[in-house]
Amino acid sequence: MAMGGMSMGGLPPLKDFPKMYWAAVGSAIGVATLVNIFNHALHRQRLSAVQAGQPKPAKPKSLFFLSNATLFAITREASNFSIRIPTKDRIFRLPTVGRTSLVLANMIVLIVLIFYGFDVNDRWSREDIGYRAGFVTISQLPLIFLLAGKNNIVGLLTGTSHERLNWLHRWCARCLLLTATIHMGYFFSDWAPYNYIGTQLKVNTLVWKGLVAWAMLVWIVFSSMTPIRGWCYELFVLQHLVSFAVLIGFVYIHTPAEVHIYIWIPVGLFFFDRVIRALRALYANVSFFHPQQRQNGQMSGFWACKAEFTPLAHDTTRIVIQNPPISWTPGQHVFLSCHSIVPLQSHPFTVASIPQDGKMEFLVKAETGGTRHFFRHAEKTNGLPASSNKSCTKTVAIEGPYGCLRPLRQFDSVVFLAGSTGATFTIPLLRDILQGWKENASTSKQLSSLFRTPVGAVARHVRFVWVVKSRGQLEWFSEQLSAVFSEYQNLQTQLRNIKLEITVYVTCDESFTEEHKTLLSTIAAPNLGTAPNRPQEPQHGAVELRSRLSSLNGKEKAAESKEKITEVTFMDPISPNRTACGADQTCCCKATVSEPASPDIISPCCCCKVDGPSSNPSTRPLSLTSSTPSANQKQKLIVHPQISVMCGRPRPKSIIRKSLEQALGESAVVVCGPQGLVADVKHDVVVLSDERAVHKGTGAQGIFLHTESFAY
Ligand SMILES: Cc1cc2nc3c(=O)[nH]c(=O)nc-3n(C[C@H](O)[C@H](O)[C@H](O)COP(=O)(O)OP(=O)(O)OC[C@H]3O[C@@H](n4cnc5c(N)ncnc54)[C@H](O)[C@@H]3O)c2cc1C
Fold it and tell me: What SUPFAM superfamilies is this protein classified in (predicted)?
C-alpha cells in the first residue's frame, strides 16, 4: 500500500521527509566539499608562490584569506576541544566537540523531521508519528552505506579517508537505531492501551518483519562496539556483512515499494565498492597488468607481489615488497594479505617507505592474531636461503592504497610526533618534505599546468620527534633517519632558510642513552658546536653510523632479535618488589624531559617516577643491560650525531610551542601513536591555539592538526 502521499493535517506528505533529510545531509557534504576544494586550491597557490620566489607563501595576506584563516582557526579550536576528567590513575577524555556536534546535528535533524507539526501529548497522533518515523528511518540507510565503503564517494568529495569516516558510519547506525525505536515505540504505545501488540504481532506479518529488522539492528549496533569488534576482527566483519544482508532483507519486506529506492541505493553502493576493490586488487596483484616490470625481470609468474619477512626487535616484522606494482603517497596504507601464512585475512598497514625507494616496506607490530603469525614466520625462516622451501619470501596480495592527508609540503612549519610504530606514518611524510626541498634546490624548473601538482615545498622548519622504548626500536629506522639528516645538511648549502631538528626519546633503555651520550662526547665532539641551520660541509665519514641488525647475517639477526625479546623481561635484582612500569616488568622512564639546548645534552632519567627529579645513579634500577653493545661494537653511533637522543618522555606542548613561535605562516602538527599521545597532542594544540589567539589580531598563524592512531 502506498503511504508516501499521505499528508497529515496540512503537513507535507510522508514521502517529502526523506528528501528533506537528504537536503540537510547533502548541504553538509557540500560545505565539506567546498572546504576540500579550497584546500586543494590553497595548496597549489602556495607551491606556485614558492616557485615564484615569494616570501612567506603560507601566510594569508588578502582580506579574503585572512578572514578564512580566522574562521578555520576558530572552527579547529572548537572542534578539537574535548573535556578531560582526571581520576586517580588515568584521564578520561570525552569525544571532541567537533565529533559530538556532528552526531548531535544529525540527531536534531532527525528528531525535528519526525516530530515536526505533531502534538506529542496527543495520543491520536501516535500512529502518525510512527509512520513519519518509519519514513525518516529508511531514508538514513544510504548514508550509512556511503560512509562504510573503502572506495568512498563522501571521502573523495570531502578529502577524508575511509577509516576516518568509520566512526561516523557507526554513529549514523546508532541514530538509525534511535529513529527505528521511535517508529516501533509509537506504534506499540498506540496499540498498548487496547492490549493489541500481541494480536498485531500474530496477525500482521508486517509487524513481526519490522520487529526482526529492529532486533537485527540492535545486534549490529551492539556487536560493532569497540571492545566487541576487536575480539575477533575477521569474525566481526563476516557476521557484520551477514547481519546487514538480513537487515536489508527484512526492511525490504517490511516497507512499501515506494521507499525501496532507499534500499536499492545502499545495495548499489555496496556492490560499487566491492567491484572497485576487486578491480584495484586485480590490477595490483596480477603481474600481467605490469608488462614493463615483467620485461625488466622485476616480476615473474602470475602474482605480482613477493614479500620478504624479517623479524625485528619488540615483536615487529619488517615486510618488504621489491618493485611494487602500484604507487602511493606518503602516509597512505594498504591492506596486505599473505594467505600461505594466514589464510583469508587482510590487514591495513601504513607504507613506511616512499615510492622513490623502489620498494614497499611495512613495519608490523605483532598483536595476537594474523600479525603474530607473520612474526613467527619471519623468526622461523630468518636466514634461510631464498631457494629453500621455507624461505622468508612469500607471495602476498595488496589492496589500496587508501588514506588521504593534506599535503604537508604546503605548511611553513611542520611538527611530527610519533610513538613506536607510529613512525611508519611520520617518516615517509618527513622524507616527502625532504623530497620537496630537493625539488626546490633543483635547477630544472617544471612548467606549471592545471593537471600537474606544482613541485617543491613551502616548509621551512621541520621538527621530528619519535618516542621509542629502546635501541631495538630506534634501529628500525636509524639508517633512514641518519640518511635524511645527511641529505638535509647537503641541501643546506643551497637552501639557507630550511631547518630540520630530529629528537628520539628513549623511554625504557637508559643504558643505551648513557652510552650514546658518552660516544657523542668522545667521537663526535667536533660536530656538536655547529648550529644545524648554518650551511656546513657534509658530515659523511665523521662518525660511522650503523644498524646492528643490518650488519649481521641471518642467524645472528634472529639471535639478536631473541636477545631483544629477553631483554625486555629483565627485572631489577636489587629490588625485586619495585613497581615496574614497562611491559613485561621492565623499568621505563616516565619522566618528561625538556628540549635540549644542544644535541649533546641528554636529560637524566628518573625511572618510574613521573616528573620527578633525577635519581641517584647508585640506586637507579638496572634497565636493559643487555642492550649495551659488545666491545667490538663500541665506538659506533647508531644515529647521526646531530640527531638528539634523550632519555624519558617528550613534552609535546613545549615542542609545538617552540615551532609555532618561529612560524612565518600556517603550521601543521602530525601525530601518530598510542591513543594517549594522540589525545594529549590534540589537547595541547587546542590550548596553544587559544593561548596564542591564532588569527585573532596577535599575528599568530594557523595550526592544522592531523592525528592517526592505527584504529577504526
Ligand atoms: C589505517 C591503519 C594503518 C595501520 N598501520 C599499521 C602499521 O603500519 N603497523 C602496524 O603494526 N599496525 C598498523 N595498523 C594496525 C594493524 O592493522 C592491526 O594491528 C592489525 O590488523 C592487527 O591484526 P591481528 O590479527 O594480529 O590483530 P588482533 O590481535 O586480532 O586484534 C588487535 C586489534 O587490531 C584490530 N584489527 C584486527 N584486524 C584488523 C583489520 N583487518 N583491520 C583493522 N583493524 C584490525 C582489532 O580490532 C583489534 O583492536 C594500522 C591500522 C590501521 C587502521
Answer: Ferredoxin reductase-like, C-terminal NADP-linked domain, Riboflavin synthase domain-like
Provide the edge-to-edge strand list for the sheet that holds 359-365: 359-365, 316-322, 306-312, 393-395
Place of cell 601525530: 671
Q: Tell me the CA–centroid distance for residue 663 and ligand 1, in Å.
A: 36
Contact between residue 119 and residue 1 where contact means Cβ atoms under 8 Å apart: no
Centre a 10 Å sphere on the Cβ of residue 157 and count the other Cβ atoms it contains: 15
Which residues have C-beta within 8 Å of that of residue 670, sequence separation ≥ 6?
405, 408, 414, 415, 416, 417, 425, 426, 429, 705, 706, 707, 708
**Contact present, 161 and 209 (Cβ < 8 Å):** no
Q: How far is the CA of 315 from the centre of ligand 1 (A)?
A: 14
**Alpha carbons 467 and 474: distance in angstroms, whole number:** 9
Helix pair 675-691, 63-80: axis angle to 10 deg: 130
Q: Assess contact for 158 and 152: CB atoms under 8 A.
A: no
Largest interatomic CA distance in the chain: 92
Which among 61-65, 89-93, 324-328, 490-494 has the top mean pLDDT? Answer: 324-328
Amino acid at 14: L
pLDDT digit string (tens) for 662-685? 999 999 999 999 988 999 999 999
372 lines ligand 1 (CB under 6 A): yes
ipTM of the complex: 0.96
Residue owning the nearest CA to atom 51 of ligand 1: 710
Same fold, 291-402 and 408-441+454-708: no
Q: What is the pLDDT of residues 105-153, one digit of tens each?
A: 999 999 999 999 999 888 889 999 999 999 999 999 999 999 999 999 9
- For β-strands 333-337 and 397-402, DSSP reports them as antiparallel
**Residue 421 DSSP label:** G
Q: Write out 166-188 in H/E/C secondary structure.
A: HHHHHHHHHHHHHHHHHHHHHHH
What is the pLDDT of the chain when averaged over all its residues? Answer: 83
| 589: confidence class by pLDDT, cuts 50, 70, 90 | low
Ligand 1 atom 46: residue of nearest CA: 230
Q: Which of 3.40.50.80, 3.30.420.40, 3.20.20.70, 1.50.10.10 would CATH assign to domain 408-441+454-708? A: 3.40.50.80
Backbone angles phi, psi at 91, to 5 degrees: -115, 125
291-402 CATH? 2.40.30.10
Q: What are the sequence ranges of the domains in the chain?
A: 105-277, 291-402, 408-441+454-708
What is the three-class DSSP state of 592?
A: strand
Ligand 1 mean position, distance from CA 308 (Å): 20
Q: What residue type is assigned to position 411 of the chain? A: F
**CA 270/CA 278 separation, integer angstroms:** 12
